[in-house]
């Protein structure tokens, strides 16, 4: 998952960075159907050496193998939590499992991963295992360029059992019968609510049932208004809601049952021209905008900045409900046992309309293997991916990071981790409902997503902070500019839509 921190009210990404190195994508984890290239020659030319980012030693990793060891190169992102897991859990365990293999860890700041990875691939330097959603344009772009190995023949050859993986999650990276990644992290989008603020106000908690159609946008707004106090005093204000939704272009209208991207666009990676200049889309963006300036239940940018100094909007204890990506499950977990923290729960995204069954954005990150390597190197990488994908290592990753599992056998234990505040069955209902009422994030599924994201972020950056902004004025510009970007992307790829 790769998230871009240029969404004016995207607050929690900063907190995620402390835990999982500004995941993006994402968090805090996604395509045309051509064969992977025999060699990854489509990558751009390597940047000059002085411009290449270097590994950042958040954790020290050995770089030299012992005599006679095979070398496997694993690219990861910097971040104390994950780097400790890699260094202290994965590497010792794999050294026992495969003593003839030395895992060389390339540890890069997430913002720099794309440059380094492109340079390595272009120079045909060894790079065995990596996550395409960490840096760059994400899975769809990398698959379209033939950079990812189809894992299906390897799975079939080894009879590797994938039955324990959540089927809908495993299939995200299965394109026309070819599996290009083994997921290791997945989550949805939710409302996180501060149980103490609800208790203090004597208000019942919201539902955990995604099928409960009484949980409408109006019901959410009514609760937010009841929970808001001292709105005009930034020192004492309690906000009924906060909005930290990403990517805004599609995650916001999806609450109202509006998805700008068709199923074909999300499966092929290339979108047709969009039609969003209408009353329905305008109403969706206006409703989100008005939480601050009309309903006065959400903090404005100045208040948001102030709350960030207290650890984050939700972490401050002064936000009753926050619409956010599912990285809250691990970013906020420590609040439960912190003496200065509080219990929190999870609710579904509200129904903007009765037709809004699919309204959550899902974020899934996979491990992938570079295409075009020799059979020996491919097997070397595949054995490591199988190891990372095993139930034992998946549990180790969960224990180290607090992220949700992608294996069904580990889910019940994960739900119990929140029982101090919320019954496990209720956590399960809220968590899994996002997958039956959501779809994978567009930043994992659309080719050249960064270009699209930059386009709409530039336009929205003047909309959100303007108290008098009208979405009816926004939509014609947004439609025109995003469609122009789609045209450029499709023409560069030789795709006709």
Write up what this structure looks like.
This protein is of the alpha/beta class and 497 residues long. It folds into 2 domains: 12-187 and 362-440, Periplasmic binding protein-like II (D-Maltodextrin-Binding Protein, domain 2), CATH 3.40.190; 189-360 and 442-493, 3-Layer(aba) Sandwich (D-Maltodextrin-Binding Protein, domain 2), CATH 3.40.190. The protein is 41% helix and 12% strand. It is built from 20 helices and 12 strands. The chain has helices spanning 12-20, 80-97, 110-122, 139-144, 152-158, 167-170, 195-201, 217-227, 248-254, 263-268, 279-293, 301-308, 328-331, 375-389, 391-401, 411-416, 424-436, 442-445, 449-463, 471-493; strands at residues 70-77, 101-108, 129-130, 174-175, 178-179, 182-187, 189-194, 242-244, 321-325, 344-347, 360-369, 438-440. The strands form 4 sheets. Strands 3, 6, 11 and 12 form a 4-stranded mixed sheet that branches. β1, α2 and β2 form a beta-alpha-beta unit. α11 (279-293) crosses α20. The radius of gyration is 22 Å and the shape is globular. The protein starts with 11 loop residues before the first helix and ends with a helix. The model is unreliable at 2-57 (pLDDT under 50).
What would the keywords be for this entry?
497 residues; alpha/beta; D-Maltodextrin-Binding Protein, domain 2; four-stranded mixed beta sheet; 12 strands
What order do the helices and strands come in, and which of them pair?
Elements: H1 12-20, E1 70-77, H2 80-97, E2 101-108, H3 110-122, E3 129-130, H4 139-144, H5 152-158, H6 167-170, E4 174-175, E5 178-179, E6 182-187, E7 189-194, H7 195-201, H8 217-227, E8 242-244, H9 248-254, H10 263-268, H11 279-293, H12 301-308, E9 321-325, H13 328-331, E10 344-347, E11 360-369, H14 375-389, H15 391-401, H16 411-416, H17 424-436, E12 438-440, H18 442-445, H19 449-463, H20 471-493
Parallel strand pairs: 1-2, 8-9, 11-12
Antiparallel strand pairs: 3-11, 4-5, 6-11, 7-9, 7-10
Helix pairs in contact: 2-15, 11-20, 19-20
């Amino acid at each position: 998952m790769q998230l871009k921190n240029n969404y004016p009210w995207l607050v929690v990404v900063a907190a995620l960075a402390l835990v999982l190195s500004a995941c993006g994508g994402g968090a805090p984890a996604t395509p045309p159907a051509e064969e992977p290239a025999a060699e990854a020659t489509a990558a751009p030319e390597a940047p000059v050496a002085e411009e290449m980012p270097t590994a950042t030693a958040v954790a020290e990793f050995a770089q030299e193998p012992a005599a006679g060891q095979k070398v496997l190169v694993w690219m990861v992102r910097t971040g104390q939590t994950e780097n400790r897991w890699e260094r202290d859990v994965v590497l010792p365990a794999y050294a026992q499992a495969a003593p003839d293999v030395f895992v060389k860890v390339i540890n890069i700041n997430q913002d720099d991963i794309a440059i380094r990875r492109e340079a390595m691939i272009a120079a045909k330097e060894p790079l065995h295992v990596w996550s395409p959603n960490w840096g760059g344009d994400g899975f769809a772009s990398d698959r379209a360029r033939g950079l990812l190995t189809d894992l299906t023949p390897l799975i079939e050859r080894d009879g590797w059992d994938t039955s324990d993986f959540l089927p809908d999650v495993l299939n995200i990276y299965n394109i026309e019968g070819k599996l290009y990644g083994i997921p290791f992290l997945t989550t949805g989008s939710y409302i996180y609510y501060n149980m103490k603020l609800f208790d203090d106000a004597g208000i019942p908690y919201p539902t955990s049932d995604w099928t409960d159609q009484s949980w409408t946008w109006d019901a959410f707004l009514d609760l937010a208004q009841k929970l808001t106090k001292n709105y005009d005093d930034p020192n004492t204000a309690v906000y009924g809601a906060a909005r930290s939704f990403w990517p805004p272009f599609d995650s916001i209208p999806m609450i109202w049952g509006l998805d700008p991207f068709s199923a074909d666009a999300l499966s092929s990676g290339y979108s047709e021209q969009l039609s969003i200049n209408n009353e329905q889309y305008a109403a969706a963006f206006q409703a989100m905008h008005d939480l601050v300036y009309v309903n006065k239940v959400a903090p404005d940018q100045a208040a948001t900045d102030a709350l960030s100094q207290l650890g984050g909007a939700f972490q401050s204890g002064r936000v009753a409900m926050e619409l956010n990506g599912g990285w809250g499950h691990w970013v906020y977990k420590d609040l439960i046992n912190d003496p200065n923290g509080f219990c929190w729960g999870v609710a579904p995204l509200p129904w903007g309309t009765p037709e809004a069954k699919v309204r959550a954005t899902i974020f899934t990150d996979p491990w992938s293997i570079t295409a075009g390597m020799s059979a020996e190197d491919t097997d070397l990488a595949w054995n490591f991916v199988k190891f990372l994908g095993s139930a034992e290592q998946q549990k180790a990753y969960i224990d180290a990071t607090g992220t949700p599992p992608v294996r069904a056998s580990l889910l019940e234990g994960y739900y119990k981790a929140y029982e101090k505040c919320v019954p496990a069955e209720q956590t399960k209902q809220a968590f899994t409902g996002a997958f039956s009422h959501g779809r994978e994030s567009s930043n994992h599924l659309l080719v050249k997503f960064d270009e699209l994201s930059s386009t709409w972020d530039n336009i929205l950056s003047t909309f959100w902070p303007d108290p008098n902004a009208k979405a009816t004025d926004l939509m014609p510009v947004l439609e025109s500019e995003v469609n122009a970007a789609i045209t450029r992307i499709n023409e560069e790829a030789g795709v006709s839509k």
